[in-house]
Amino acid sequence: MNLVHNTLSRFVSDGQIAGCAVRIMRNDEVYYEESFGYADIERKIPMSSEDTIFPIASMSKVITVAGIMQLYEQGLFKMWDPVSEYLPGFKNPKVAKEKPDGSYKIMNAKGEVTMRQLFTMTSGVPYPWRDTAAGRIRIEKETEWEKSGKPVPGTVEYANLVGQLPLAFEPGEKWMYGFSIDVLGAVIEVLSGQSLGEYLKEHILDPLKMEDTGFFVPDAKQGRIATLYHILEDMRPEERDYRTDRPEFESGGGGLFSTVRDYSRFAQMLLHGGTLEDVRILGRKTVDLIAANHLTPEQQVSHSWDTQRGYGYGLGVRVMTNPENAGINGSVGEWGWDGAFGNWFCVDPKEKLTCVYLTTNLPGDHYRFIPKLMASMYASLD
């Protein structure tokens, strides 16, 4: 694994990132594990693959997907169910139809958002981003909520409020990265009667012995959280402001903290078809469904990020379909996801391999780093 070592150490020595940690497992053995740079430059705290706690952002999504798929296995919902059966805020959805001049018209949607569309990011439920009219409307509404002085809504209430806002397009029309998995986190609360954090802890995190993973970091562990750094601004540190108790809104789409070793256990469970060390989290066929490409050719057109070249999209995860188009020396069927701060993981059933790479980048700049990591990793395999 000299290639991986040289690549990651160069990221740090060249001043491109503050630090990173990685764990690669192959054939159930640690194939390579190392950390580079600093978790906190100012305090000279080195990065650690064992102890450093990272905000993992959207890598939270795959854990939330595993949680709700447990409820799917129990027969508590069907993929094509309208979301409004569980969250009434999604009844009678509207669509913000954009015009060429940037204006928009609010219209009745032709159909309701389904559970399957949430999983596959084809729902049209936006993040509060400015790239769509629906996203801009959400920014305006959330600003109103914040100024109202009302308490921060809980997970279910928040999802219902978002459900009442216009969609970015007709449900199922295209792929768009958005708030969908957070909505699934709210459905977990409705179906289980537990908070999202309680459910994930009882049914996934504790069984897998993921002791440093959750929606907040207790006071005694706060010093282990890696500082985020603005990598395009001379490593300016982001302000540290992390909850020490449960947040009102538990973001199943982006709110978890974890470590390389914790998340590696989760990835190994997925590699083994839902089971790790005789602990069953999901059924093998359920994991197969998660890791299959669910996009239609029409939806695939809008699945066009640089990081998604050569990939389809499953239930909350990317799925490698064409390594040649990706320009990556990997495997058809490799799958996983990443997070806003440069984090990334993969499961490769063909090579019996998992990789968890965590870092602290603002912006994540995945396409700048991850293809290089993958090239070195796959070139190292015998």
Give a structural overview.
The chain is of the alpha+beta class. It has 2 domains: 2-60 and 209-379, Beta-lactamase (3-Layer(aba) Sandwich), CATH 3.40.710.10; 72-192, Beta-lactamase, CATH 3.40.710.10. Helices cover 31% and strands 18% of the residues. The chain contains 12 helices and 17 strands. It has an 8-stranded antiparallel sheet with strand order 3-2-1-16-15-14-13-12. A 3-stranded mixed sheet has the order 8-7-17, with no helix packed on it. Strand 7 and strand 8 form a beta hairpin. Helix 1 (2-13) runs antiparallel to helix 12, helix 2 (60-73) packs across helix 7 and helix 5 crosses helix 6. The longest helix is centred in the middle third of the chain and has 15 residues, at 133-147. The mean pLDDT is 97.
Question: How do you describe this structure in short?
Answer:
The chain is an alpha+beta fold and 382 residues long. The protein contains twelve helices and 17 strands.
Mean pLDDT over the residues: 97
Distance between the termini: 10 Å
In the predicted model, the low-confidence regions spanning at least 5 consecutive residues are none
The coarse overall form would be globular
Instruction: Describe the main β-sheet briefly.
Output: 8 strands, antiparallel
The beta-strand count equals 17
Strand content: 15-25%
- Percent helix: 25-40%
How large is the count of helical segments?
A: 12
Structural class: alpha+beta
How many structural domains can be distinguished in the coordinates?
Answer: 2
Q: Which architecture name of the largest domain does CATH use?
A: 3-Layer(aba) Sandwich
Radius of gyration based on Cα positions:
20 Å
> What is the name of the CATH superfamily of the largest domain?
DD-peptidase/beta-lactamase superfamily
Run of helices and strands: HEEEEHEEHHHHHEEEHEEHHEEHEEEEH
What is the level 1 CATH name of the largest domain? Alpha Beta
The strand line-up of the biggest sheet is 3-2-1-16-15-14-13-12
